[in-house]
Amino acid sequence: MRARRCGWVPRLMLVFLAAACAHPPPARQAGDRPLHACESPGALCWDFEEGRLPDGWTPYRDELSGKLLVDDTRAYRGRYALHARQLVGGTEGSQGGPKKTLRFELPAHFGPVLWGRAYIYTSPARPMSHAGLFNARYPRPGQTGGAIDTLDWYEVATYRQRYMSIWHPPEPPGFPEWVQVSDTPLVLDEWACLEWLFDGANGTQPEAAEPRVWLNGTELQWPETFVFSDPPTQERPVREKVSDFTVLEAGVFLYQGLSVPTDWWMDELAVGPRRIGCE
Ligand SMILES: [Ca+2]
């Protein structure tokens, strides 16, 4: 992976960068490349190099088959990554799928704008079912905390083999929800850098912003948008504004069945009040 990234640079820089490609990266100078996530002001980042679940992350969802762990089977950087291993179960097209996630309580006063970034590797097949990867939750207006099932939330996921983003009211039931489906197939069998912006302040607008997502630095478009609810409704949910994001969830959570045992790895996860960027 590192060699391929180095291959992008102009030829004149190759000699200079040969050392950086062959050895651990040298100390960075401000301005010459994107900041490492942990250097971005106010950012929280997880590289999983402890070789176990990082401090503060606790198991949350655990349904059907598979396992969520930190291991050294594949990493974007370093030795370790978060690994959702061999998730399978349920019936495609029917509700109920494997879910393996962790949750994390953000420090107080995180604020209403959450940028995120993670490198994700999916193999061996693109699921048709809704596969959530990351979400961030916040108390409804007038509230300052509360149990996770009282919180509004933004989500990044894939659905029908494409990237998807959603705004949800509290779960359960989590709908009626505002769904945005991209025309970009999810990246398979290689690392992809996903970034997201959950702008719960949204300036003077009356509602929190729709989620935005970037893939390898290019913003995704959403040619398909709809309200999902069961039973169906035509009424769009009101995206309530955010005072502070309070909870993160990461891992993989399928809302419908998954017939092909599938692995995901996530590395270099980071969140912060400003864009963190890909390397
Ligand atoms: Ca790592």
Description:
The protein is mainly beta. The protein folds into two domains: 1-33, no CATH class; 34-272, Sandwich (Jelly Rolls). Helices cover 5% and strands 43% of the residues. The protein is built from two helices and 16 strands. The strands form two sheets. Strands 1, 3, 4, 6, 11, 12, 13 and 16 form an eight-stranded antiparallel sheet that branches. Strand 9 and strand 10 form a beta hairpin. The longest helix has 9 residues, at 14-22. The termini are close together. This is Lipoprotein. Keywords: Signal. Residues 1-29 form the signal peptide.
Please sum up the structure shown.
Residues 1-29 form the signal peptide. By secondary structure, the chain is mainly β. The chain contains two helices and 16 strands.
